[in-house]
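A reminder from the course coordinator: this example appears on the midterm review sheet, so study it carefully.

Given structure:
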């Protein structure tokens, strides 16, 4: 970009570019606070409501383990009341009261208890995997949005420089027309091109503002309004080799990990339902008191599953386990294909970047320089100069887009393998 402006300034004197955000307010880069990509990810992961909600789900699941580990409480029944006589008082004595206290303590099936606790613990693992997935998705989105903001700002700066150039061209042509050195048709053509470039410049500026607002939205307003991204579209992309990534992603992808935990939980639920068919035992103790007697009795209450053996609940758990297993197999395949697609996109973007940097931009800049010199000596018209500038603008725009596509593909790969600055995230 800077080299492009320097080459153009050989023929036209350009004034320094000042980007006005709104009328009467001038924005300067020094007045804004800069944040790195990692800092933006940290702020977003700390403030975004979806992450906080997913963390609450983990806490809820952890509380479920406490509930599943609790022992059943005893049940105490107290009964009391008067005793009415049916024979004369001379034989029974005076009328009195009687009282009965009964304690019922369930004895839990140890197989059902262990399966229930295991299922609750698997639910915690599933919740943590879901939290990791939300974090990875948000971190990737923040990274892509940050680089999109850089892309839009570069595009806006490009359109601004072209607008300043054509504005100077328009001024010089207008002077030549007034002196009778050029035809008025050249001025009309320059005015038309200037209005077109001005519209593109305004659209690029608005797109940059929209990208800024989108990034603020993903960080839940944690960034200041005048923030700047301390990064570049030319940042190097560092990823492990392809073979390592193919082995790593099925093991670290949060959705696969979550489905594995869900599958374990459904298996334990089957064990829990099957264990519930076994007879359940309650220990009973009862104390009876009246005027003449004080009786203590103890016994067992056994529930025998003869008529209904929880066939419906067991089948439901089996079918649910099959559903999770089939979903897991499909998601393994789908995540693998998503990675292969992201890797191919990364390779394509790298080749495009190399193509632009290997000399294509330089050739377009040289063509503009030649067209400027020819236009200055009257060998070429304004139309030829504008055509070469359009070609250079298109190549520069494509180069910016290729660099952004490279960063976006790398962010997608990091999302699939849940790679983000975890050490900066509070648990």
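Designed residues:
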């Amino acid at each position: 970009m800077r080299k492009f402006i320097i080459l153009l300034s050989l023929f036209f004197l350009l004034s320094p570019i000042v980007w006005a955000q709104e009328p009467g307010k001038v924005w300067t880069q020094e007045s804004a606070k800069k944040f790195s990509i990692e800092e933006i990810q940290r702020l977003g992961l700390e403030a975004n409501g979806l992450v906080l909600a997913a963390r609450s789900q983990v806490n809820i699941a952890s509380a479920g383990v406490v509930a599943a580990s609790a022992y059943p409480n005893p049940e105490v029944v107290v009964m009391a009341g008067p005793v009415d006589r049916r024979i004369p008082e001379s034989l029974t004595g005076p009328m009195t009261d009687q009282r009965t206290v009964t304690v019922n303590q369930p004895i839990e099936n140890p197989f059902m208890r262990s399966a229930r606790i295991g299922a609750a613990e698997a639910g915690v693992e599933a919740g943590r995997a879901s939290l990791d997935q939300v974090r990875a998705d948000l971190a990737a989105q923040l990274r892509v949005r940050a680089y999109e903001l850089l892309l839009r700002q570069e595009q806006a700066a490009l359109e601004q420089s072209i607008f300043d150039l054509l504005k100077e061209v328009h001024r010089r042509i207008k002077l030549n027309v007034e002196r009778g050195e050029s035809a008025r048709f050249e001025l009309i053509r320059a005015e038309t091109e200037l209005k077109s470039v001005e519209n593109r410049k305004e659209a690029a500026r608005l797109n940059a503002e929209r990208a800024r607002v989108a990034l603020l939205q993903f960080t839940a307003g944690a960034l200041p309004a005048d923030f700047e991204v301390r990064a570049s579209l030319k940042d190097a992309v560092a990823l492990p080799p392809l073979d390592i990534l193919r082995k790593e992603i099925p093991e670290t992808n949060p959705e696969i990990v979550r489905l594995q935990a869900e599958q374990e939980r459904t298996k334990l639920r089957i064990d829990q339902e099957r264990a519930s068919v076994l007879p359940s035992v309650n220990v009973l103790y009862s104390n009876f008191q009246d005027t003449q007697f004080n009786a203590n009795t103890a016994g067992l209450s056994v529930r025998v599953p003869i008529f209904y053996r929880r066939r419906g609940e067991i089948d439901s758990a089996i079918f649910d386990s099959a559903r999770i297993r089939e979903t897991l197999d499909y998601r393994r395949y789908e995540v693998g294909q998503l990675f292969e697609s992201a890797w191919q996109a990364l390779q394509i973007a790298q080749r495009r970047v190399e193509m632009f940097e290997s000399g294509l931009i330089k050739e377009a800049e040289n063509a503009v320089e030649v067209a400027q010199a020819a236009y200055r000596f009257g060998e070429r018209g304004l139309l030829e100069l504008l055509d070469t500038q359009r070609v250079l603008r298109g190549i520069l725009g494509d180069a910016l887009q290729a660099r952004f596509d490279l960063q976006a593909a790398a962010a997608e790969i990091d999302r699939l393998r849940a790679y983000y600055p975890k050490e900066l995230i509070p648990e």
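The longest helix spans residues 110-178. Residues 365 and 392 are 7 Å apart (CA to CA).
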